[in-house]
Amino acid sequence: MLKGELAISGRLLVGLQWSGNYPEETQFLMKRGSRCEVNGYFRIMSGARVGLAPGAVLSLGSGYINNEARITCMRRISIGENVAIGPYFKARDDDGHSISGAKDSAGIRIGDNVWIGMNVTVLKGVTIGDGAIIAAGAVVTKDIPSGMLAAGTPARPIRKAEWT
């Protein structure tokens, strides 16, 4: 259901399925006052659940997010150009609850030429630098510098990223 604003200068395809896979329900929900900006050719594969709160901005460059993604955008999530994100990806820029009396949210920025493996979680306030690689299963709680391979729970840079 779209109630927010789509600003598309590129192309957004939502709910695609890979050849040979079974179709899965995909949801893309934009609340009033939210905005999705698409600057390049971006694909969100089937089974994804994407939600934008009132006033939130989701900015997409080019690339794809694989099957079964979960994106909760309460403030701002930005995904750069030429980004490949594996299945079961999760990104949330808000705690969704209050522990000490104040709910906390902070944007997420994923740079250009980033590769994110399967089952990665990215939490609020994180920047993943250009050319970074995030290993499968990582939980990204702090910034990852450009050009680094990061792994673990919590994710930490372990060496320079090597693209082949």
TrEMBL record:
Q: Keywords of this protein's UniProt record, alphabetized? A: Acyltransferase, Repeat, Transferase
The GO terms describing molecular function are:
acyltransferase activity
Checking CDD domains in the record gives: LbH_MAT_like
Pfam families in the record: Hexapep
Question: Is the keyword DNA-binding assigned to this protein?
Answer: no
The protein's superkingdom reads Bacteria
Q: What is this protein called?
A: Acyltransferase
Which species does this protein come from? Flaviflagellibacter deserti
